[in-house]
Amino acid sequence: MELPERKRQILKAIVESYIETAEPVGSKMIAGVFSQPISSATIRNEMSELEELGFLEKPHVSAGRVPSYAAYRLYVDELMESYRVTTGEIERLQAAMRSRLRELDNIMVNASRIVSHFTDHTSVSIVDRAGGASVRKVQLVSVDDMTYAAVFVTENDARSKVLRLPSPLPGNEASLLERALNLAIGQRRLPELVSGLRMMAAPGNGALFLAEKVLEQVRELEGENHSADVYVDGAARLLNNREYQDPEKARDLLDYLSDRKKVGELARDEIPYVVNIRIGPENTDPRLRDVSFVFTAYDLDERTRGIVGVIGPTRMDYARTIARLSAIARQLSRLASGENAKYKLKESGEAHGGK
Amino acid sequence: MELPERKRQILKAIVESYIETAEPVGSKMIAGVFSQPISSATIRNEMSELEELGFLEKPHVSAGRVPSYAAYRLYVDELMESYRVTTGEIERLQAAMRSRLRELDNIMVNASRIVSHFTDHTSVSIVDRAGGASVRKVQLVSVDDMTYAAVFVTENDARSKVLRLPSPLPGNEASLLERALNLAIGQRRLPELVSGLRMMAAPGNGALFLAEKVLEQVRELEGENHSADVYVDGAARLLNNREYQDPEKARDLLDYLSDRKKVGELARDEIPYVVNIRIGPENTDPRLRDVSFVFTAYDLDERTRGIVGVIGPTRMDYARTIARLSAIARQLSRLASGENAKYKLKESGEAHGGK
DNA sequence: GGTTAGCACTCAACTCCCCCGAGTGCTAAT
DNA sequence: ATTAGCACTCGGGGGAGTTGAGTGCTAACC
User: Fold this and answer.
1) Both B347 and B241 in a single domain?
2) Do both B103 and B59 map to the same domain?
3) Nearest-CA residue of chain B relative to A252?
4) Which SS3 state, helix, strand or coil, does residue B128 take?
5) What is the nearest CA distance from B38 to chain A, expressed in angstroms?
6) Nearest-by-Cβ selection for B158 from A149, A244, A254
7) What CATH number is associated with residue B285?
8) What is the mean pLDDT of residues B32-53?
9) Beta-strand relationship, A147-154 and A158-164
């Protein structure tokens, strides 16, 4: 059941007006914008049908109409015209990205910052190591005899943890331990090694402590429930939107955003390399039920994907947000994995959201 | 010019009432709370004198009075009774801290979380490496031939950075480079080594790139302008206070909090090991001019100090906040540097703030 | 002289009421 | 199918009036 063209045009005009003004849209307002004039009464008839179809809602009887989630969905999928990112914008973007993005550590926090800045929304940046990268080796770097940094090397990344031991461990013992640990890791028998050590050594023993921490960390890195890296930037921008004037609402959302674990779950599903949009109730987390989450994936390297997105009111300017976000993601992908970027968004910036 | 006892009692009562209710305090309200009854007229006389002295302000003529910053200062310095942390609270605190605090990486983020949770305010946690720790050695851990983790070991800490090279660097070259770098670091001639390399190698060369990044990082770690590590937790709690119902204000403050660099400056000055309090305009940053910052320092180890604190409205419950914060800091110090804790707050939790 | 009762005064906040106007739905004419 | 017209709805804005908490001041009291 396709919507007839005029209804589509009217709905489009309503959504755009509401995106711009955040005010309920009345029939006269719409009647004014068409080249070939239509009377407001006609619009009213159309609007009342659109309401029956579930695309519009009335806050109250004399207040004009407001788009429903279904309207945004239709708008995004079929009505919206793509926003063309100007070359000026691209240049500013590239300038902002040029520096500081060689270090993998920084890429997420900077991506997050840039996205927030360029879209003027709150951004999230998530790095998802596919299926828990397997740890290939561990290296113990001595700081002093009570302190070691353990460096965990995976297929394509490394991360370190500084550990303060309960009792000293001389350097030669540490290198023995390191060898043993790596042997065990190679044979996938790390747990056995640790429980063996646990039998031999007193609790509080430095080597045992280290080994336990290493095991713990390996489990964390390899496990399913590894917490993805999450950055949020520009949270304060939420408060720019009139829908969060209510501090109650704003607080709930900020609360959500500070829960990294929860935010990390946003990236749980399969995410295609296009700009995805989850509008209002399409979000699984109830606290996101009246915001929209616009996001995309990019490759950091063969095994690691980044996800960047923005969170804003359902009435956000989707066209512009999508265009800018995809421009950023394209740049990120190129920067991160050299020139063999895998990010292939159609030029138009066209988007089909996924529930 | 000491304030006479009765005025002090009245002022104390006013501050406490305002802390509790956030409503301007009238003379009758106060008249009610004294054991030996005083008429409201008398209170009015006293209040009008306290106003002349600069301790009270009137929002408007018929609205009761509100404490000035000077009143809070006096309250905190002389009037406030210390809050006794209950054993139940201590137990909950210890339980919350018991786990996860062995790892130096985590201590700040957890400290921050715990402080926010136990004080019900927004917390900040800053780690300040005194004077820029000097880097003792660097270790290059190979992930693959295009990717290395550089581990920087200082007197008492280590941190790593994952670097993606523009061109491959075989492992043996990396270990040569590592040796050269460490030699140069030992002789304090790292810049010379790097500029030497720059002459020999083409730009884009892996070793040169690595060396440059290492130099950059060493400079960052040793430099004066090293950015302190900063964590903020519970930012959303700000919105619980009625003074931030105005989204404008709330946003400015949230903005401030997301500027790590600025927040890091909070710890710039010498900070004694007591609970410090900066009330309203005593804060140097203008954006903090009507909040209070309550904070304390604790030792992470010989060279590294942590600062934890909370940011809240000037009308916060100082007694309780101070007591809980100092309890947490005491625990942290003990946990972090074993049993030789340097944190010596007087048992009472007594506090003398410093501008 | 310090304290207090009493009283006039102030002013934000609340309520009540009215009106305006944007917007709707329906009907009848085109 | 479209549109002009009209009655109707209802939120919001703008006084006017009222309330009540609170003040300052004065005069009496101990």
Assistant:
1) yes
2) no
3) B236
4) strand
5) 40
6) A149
7) 3.30.450.40
8) 89
9) antiparallel
Q: Which residue is nearest to nucleotide D8 (CA to C1')?
A: A62
Looking at the fold, whether B59 and B204 belong to one and the same domain comes out as: no
pTM higher than 0.85:
no
In chain B, positions 80-119, which contact chain A (CB-CB < 8 Å)?
102-105
> Is residue B330 a contact partner of residue B345, using CB atoms and an 8 Å limit?
yes
How many domains are contained in chain A? 3
In 3D space, the residue among B51, B71, B69, B53 whose CA is nearest the CA of residue B61 turns out to be B51
CB contact under 8 A, B254 and A235: yes
* Local structure of B178: helix, strand or coil: helix
Which protein residue's Cα is closest to nucleotide C11 at C1'? Answer: B62
Instruction: Give the domain-ending residue among A179, A207, A223.
Output: A223
Residue A74 is given by DSSP the state H
- The predicted model gives A259-284 an average pLDDT of 88
Provide the 8-state DSSP code for A312.
Answer: E
Nucleotide closest in space to B63 (CA vs C1'): D22
Q: B45-97 pLDDT, tens per residue?
A: 999 999 999 999 998 888 899 999 999 999 999 999 999 999 999 998 888 88
B234: Cβ contacts below 8 Å, ≥ 6 apart: A258, B113, B116, B117, B120, B121, B122, B123
Which residues 213-242 on chain A approach chain B with CB closer than 8 angstroms? Answer: 213, 233-237, 239-240
Could you tell me which residues are beta bridge partners of residue A291?
A313
Give yes or no: residues A336 and A287 share one domain. Answer: yes
Q: How confident is the model at residue A182 (pLDDT cuts 50, 70, 90)?
A: very high
Pair B243, B342 in one domain: yes
Note whether A48 contacts B: Cβ–Cβ < 8 A: no
Q: Distance between CA atoms of B113 and B123, rounded to whole angstroms?
A: 7
* Same domain, yes or no: B218 and B232: no
Residues A247, B247: C-beta atoms closer than 8 Å:
yes
CB within 8 Å: B149 and A154:
no
A79 CA, C27 C1': Å apart? 34
User: Residues 80-99 of chain A: which lie with beta carbon within 7 Å of strand C?
Assistant: none
In the numeric block, which tokens belong to residue A132?
A: 């828990």
Instruction: Please give the residue range of the domain that contains residue B330.
Output: 87-130+227-353
Q: Does B258 touch chain A (CB under 8 A)?
A: yes
Tokens 């959504």 sit on residue: A15
The reply to whether B70 and B36 lie within a common domain is: yes
